Amino acid sequence: MQAEATKAEALAQMRRRVVISSTIGNALEWFDFTVFGLFAGILSKLFFPADNPNSSLLLTFATFGIAFAARPLGGLVFGLYADKHGRKKALVVMISLMAVGTGLLGLLPTYGAIGIAAPLLLLLARLIQGFSAGGEFGSASAMLIEFAPPGRRGFYGAFQMVSQNLAFAIGAAMAISLNFSLSPDAFASWGWRVPFILGILIGPTGWYLRQRCDESPEFQAYLAEKAASAQPARKTTLGQLFSEYPRELIASFCLIAAGTAINYVNAIFLPTYAVAELKLPILNAQMGLLFLSLANAAIAMASGALSDRIGRRAVLIPSLIIYGVLFYVMLQRLVAEPTTTNLWQMQIVAVFLGTLAGPMPAFMTEIFPVGVRSTGASLMYNLAVMLFGGLAPFINTWLVQATGDKAAPVYYIFFAAAVGLVGLSAYRARTSGARTAPAPALSP
After folding, report:
1. Rounded alpha-carbon distances, angstroms, from residue 118 to 51, 81, 195, 211, 234
2. Cβ proximity of 390 and 65 under 8 Å
3. Is residue 231 very low, low, confident or very high in pLDDT (cuts 50, 70, 90)?
4. C-beta neighbour count of 425 within 10 angstroms
5. DSSP letter string over 128-160?
6. What is the pLDDT of residue 312?
7. Which of 52, 66, 203, 311 lies 20 to 30 angstroms, CA to CA, from 420?
């Protein structure tokens, strides 16, 4: 009895360590992206000076989006590595490389100092970040659900989204603090660099924590079963993934496309939009993002746990529909009467992003078997983020300028929500009458 109690306590301690180490890289990724989005106005002036401020802003958001081209490549490389050699080894490498990209961004000279080399180096830093972050979400989510107790994958997977929302909150809080404590000249001179430089410190901390984690029990069992099998491998992991799990790939891509589009519009595009188009104070938009992010951290955990009880789709589908409707209503109101109160009410609507985000990591990983899980989740996550997330600020800025309609972002949200619903429907058709993956509580 004593030995069993000791073993159970050791497993519980390892699970806590896995939760912290698996989410810290995701937090660093989203902290960097949040700060970049909130500081887009000053970055556009320092790295892309132009006669037209809108042109500078578009170039800044284009750099933000182009860097996402490296994410699918990173997702493929690190996903295959994690499925072959283990989640732990891949996560250790990724956190180190991610910290390098973040730190480089904070140390770059501006256009005024080195000319055209400045935006090129900015793009290089973003590419490093994109490549290293490529495999982070899929591999870390796989690690979390593979360590989760039976029937609690939704709750454990939700910690990925908790880390994202806390990163949003910390990024917004730091932006608010810098705006309060520094003069505009000091902020433009060096203040904007502070969050990126601080990001360097997360790298060694994450590396240390990840080194102390065990490999997931489910992956270890998979390796043991594979070693004991007398059957030779007929296909590569990538070939097996595309030939045997096309609907899982589609469902994962579509759901992430919807979630990431909504996420980037709210966290990256909306604060800048509120200032540039609606002439509202940037501080008010940052305050709204701060409180929303804290609320969504708790909501994501609750919705992840709820999905363990009633099924993933029973939480995901209503969240997409309700958010799309409320976004339309609140954006129309905000455009008609651009006040801080209406801006905050619109940001509050994004609590449905929390309900959508909670079950998402479990859904997009558990539908794949363990041998292709990290590759499938990482590849689809990063393709979706590249197409629907990284380009979201640029596309929405362009939509507003091209149409002259300040409510144009609603079309982007409608399209993204429709894509998510199509993906969920496709996977329901796939699993009609049978389950193809070890996914408890996948459907009600």
Report:
1. 18, 33, 19, 35, 48
2. yes
3. low
4. 14
5. HHHHHHTTHHHHHHHHHHHHSPTT-HHHHHHHH
6. 93
7. 66
Structure tokens at 393: 């600020």
> Which DSSP string corresponds to 23-39?
HHHHHHHHHHHHHHHHT
DSSP per residue, 208-224? HHHHTSPPPHHHHHHHH
Cα 180 to Cα 170, 173, 183, 292, 406, distances in angstroms:
15, 11, 8, 20, 29
What are the C-alpha distances in Å from 103 to residues 1, 96, 114, 142, 191? 50, 11, 19, 27, 14
Structure tokens at 201: 């410190």
Is the pLDDT at 53 greater than 50? The verdict is yes
- The pLDDT mean for the chain works out to 82
- Reported as a pLDDT band with limits 50, 70 and 90, residue 237 is low
CA distances, 65 to each of 59, 68, 309, 378 (Å):
10, 6, 37, 18
Structure tokens at 66: 């182009």
Q: Which residue has the tokens 């949200």?
A: 413
- Tell me, what's the pLDDT at 429? 40
* Upper half-sphere CA count for residue 266 (Cβ side, 13 Å): 34
Q: How far apart are CA 98 and CA 70, in angstroms?
A: 13
Q: Beta-carbon neighbour count of residue 113 at 10 Å?
A: 10
| CA atoms 62, 67, 70, 74: torsion sign | negative
